[in-house]
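A favour, since you know our structure tokens better than I do. It will help me judge whether the discrete encoding reads sensibly. The space below this message is yours for that.
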Amino acid sequence: MIYNTLAHYYDALVKDDQATSAWHDWIHTVKIGSSILELACGSGEITRRLAQDGVHIDALDLSEEMIAEAKQKQDSQSIHYFTGNMLDLKECGQY
């Protein structure tokens, strides 16, 4: 999987603060509860922004290496990162 190799360099290559802000703002236009499941969370940029708003987030990504990169930046206890395939969500509960 390409992201296993790319994970360490991902933010340096594709990080876009303006896009992160736009996604963050758009998510808040939708009625959200106190808990969110984020699929394909990558390096956790949007995840962290939402957690700063007081939202509890379960963040899933297929790449263990991307999850490891996201966890290194974690500054909130309201984020739970885990590795999994978004095509199989039967263990994730309801959101």
